[in-house]
UniProtKB/TrEMBL annotation:
One GO-annotated biological process of the protein: transmembrane transport
The name this protein goes by in its record: Purine nucleoside permease
UniProt organism field: Arthrobotrys oligospora (strain ATCC 24927 / CBS 115.81 / DSM 1491) (Nematode-trapping fungus)
Record lineage: Eukaryota, Fungi, Dikarya, Ascomycota, Pezizomycotina
Role summary: Nucleoside permease that transports adenosine and guanosine.
Keywords in alphabetical order: Transport
Pfam family, any one: NUP
Family named by the database record: Belongs to the NUP family.
């Protein structure tokens, strides 16, 4: 498969943060001014509501471009300017038929929540049968994969909802041999193995396992893009980190803080296990998914979307911790990890198989829905176990809707 136009004319940024160089900011301001003058609504002037089969969700421009520049039929067939979307990305793009659409939310939790809320409550779309395909890059846990690896999570855990003490002021102890300043909220001890004493409701979400397995199978045998990342991979002793990228099933963690290091990775991995009652396996870190899922749960409670139709794909653009003997700061800011281009490309390489599987098998599989075999929803059981599966996350006395035997 040839991936067109993922490399901008001036080259792809070497690191994720390099996309905000002055040249790109100036170009971005020009685009924002142009888009700010676009009238709200559909570009064809119609007031008809669009009912997509798939809504592709990207986070920033390079993630968006792999679908916008490569998907066939073109996603520029119909543009919809939606009030409340990011000023950087104020339009939803769709095929001419409206079967497949694409939104870019902008980065981090607040942007993701604001943009998704604007979309689902705009009433410009009927999203009641839409599959939300969230595709983005992430940091990857070397115990589960390598740069370029494609992952499909069942759980998304919000990593930052904890107490924190600055590392320079840590007390002694802490349990489980951890040395960070993080520990669970509303507890009386400095330990990271105690279930939180207070739950906000966005700590963890469970997705449709049957759907996850279906799309995982749709990507079987896919030839992923690999890059110059192999040299840096060899610095790791863990087999999963050293091998070429593949497709795997493991879970994701959300944090506005762009973190790195084995100490924090250990804390967040432990929190994932704790909040999923022992079943979650943390393998990727990103900045948006719990916010996006919170919006979709609330929209599902309002009968606007079906939460059983949510898919997350995250690709590894860099490792979440340094290899042995490498300084963590150097690893974060300067190390030639080489995984960014492959991670961007593989969003499309694997993701287009998922989108095409949904569209191609709509009548016989997807229109009626892929029935969940597990609990889906948030830690509060906001949706009330709609498919009859008792929650396997959270504790009953904190549920909004109690499960009855």
């Amino acid at each position: 498969m040839t991936i067109r136009s993922i490399i901008p004319p001036n080259g792809l940024p070497k690191y994720r943060s390099d996309r905000y160089v002055p040249r790109n900011r100036a170009q971005e301001r020009h685009v924002i001014r142009q888009r700010g003058n676009a009238p709200l609504g559909r570009s064809d002037g119609s007031s008809d509501i669009i009912k997509p089969k798939v809504m592709i969700v990207a986070i920033f421009s390079l993630e968006a471009d792999v679908f916008l520049n490569n998907y066939t039929p073109t996603l520029y067939g119909l543009n919809v300017t939606v009030p409340g979307l990011s000023p950087r990305y104020p339009e939803v793009y769709c095929t001419t038929t409206g079967e497949v659409c694409h939104i870019t939310t902008a980065e981090a939790e607040i942007n993701a929540a604001a943009s998704m809320s604007a979309l689902v409550y705009s009433r410009m779309f009927d999203l009641s049968e839409t599959y939300f395909f969230i595709g983005g890059i992430s940091g990857i846990n070397p115990n589960y994969g390598t740069t370029g690896t494609v992952t499909f999570p069942r759980f998304a855990v919000q990593l930052g909802l904890q107490y924190e003490i600055d590392s320079g002021q840590l007390p002694r102890g802490g349990g489980l041999d951890f040395g960070s300043g993080f520990f669970t909220q509303r507890t009386k001890e400095f330990k990271n193995n105690i279930y939180p004493g207070v739950i906000y409701g966005t700590e963890v979400f469970g997705l449709n396992e049957a759907l996850r397995k279906r799309v995982f199978l749709a990507t079987t045998g896919v030839k992923l893009v690999d890059t110059e990342a192999a040299r840096y991979r060899r610095l790791y002793s863990i087999p999963a980190a050293r091998t070429p990228p593949g497709v795997t099933l493991c879970d994701t963690g959300t944090s506005d803080t762009w973190w790195t290091g084995s100490v924090l990775a250990g804390v967040f991995g432990n929190l994932t296990v704790l909040l999923t009652n022992g079943t979650g396996e943390y393998c990727t870190t990103q900045q948006e998914d719990n916010a996006t899922l919170a919006v979709l749960v609330r929209a599902a409670a309002a009968n606007l979307v079906d939460f059983a139709r949510v898919i997350i794909l995250r690709t590894g653009s860099d490792f979440d911790r340094a290899p042995p003997g490498i300084d963590e700061l150097y690893h974060l800011l300067q190390a030639p990890q080489g995984g960014f281009a492959g991670a961007i490309a593989n969003i499309y390489v694997a993701g287009v198989r998922v989108v095409n599987d949904i569209v191609s098998h709509w009548d016989e599989v997807y229109k009626a829905g892929v029935k969940p075999t597990n609990y889906i929803g948030d830690i509060l059981n906001t949706l009330g176990s709609p498919y009859g599966h008792a929650p396997d996350i959270g504790v009953e006395d904190q549920f909004v809707v109690l499960v009855r035997s």
